[in-house]
Input
Amino acid sequence: MGDLTRLRQTCQLDNLLLLARYPRVLRHPQLLSNFATTLLKWPSDSPAEIVSGGGQNDKIAVVSVKNPKPAGGAIKLTMDRLENNANGGIWSGTNAVSDGTAINEPDPNKLCQIRSPVSVKGKGNAFEAVIGKVQVLDHNYNSIGIADAHTASGVEGNGNLPFSTSVSYTSTFKNGLQDGLVVLYSYSNADGSIAGIAMSKVLLT
Output
């Protein structure tokens, strides 16, 4: 795959992850909240603020976004510069997590190449052994695979517990690789809305 093709795929994926050519755009809270409305289906007025970084010469930014509904969840989105270019480089969303929620495999700190079925491991806040759903998303955020995330067999109850599952998916690219996401969603027991997220950016085969 050529560099230009790869760059186009990366840009497509990151447009909804608050892709920004200029640092001043990153500092616009309304644009930052678009992440929550797209992947989490949260209200468009979800408040967002930069926790750290995001300046003209920074290579990393951490952004906090909160669901304004009563007992709504909160996420932290980590972004870095494409190709580590701090001189006006493109901001690329690389990770998003909620408190107590994590994906450890595929490693969110590496751009792992995966194939179907993919093994997914992590932790989440369980209620009666149910943690949430794991989805594989293609470069357009279409869900191409889904599986339940629950505690290990014989482990019941509530609390922050590990999970392991396998997700089968069908890539929307017939040939070659495409950028994608492995995402863990947790849901509110009150209204069924998405309460939390953990994600790992991957290359789909």
Notes: Residues 99-205 form a domain with the Immunoglobulin-like fold (CATH 2.60.40.2550). The chain is about 15% helix and 45% strand. The chain has a mean pLDDT of 81.
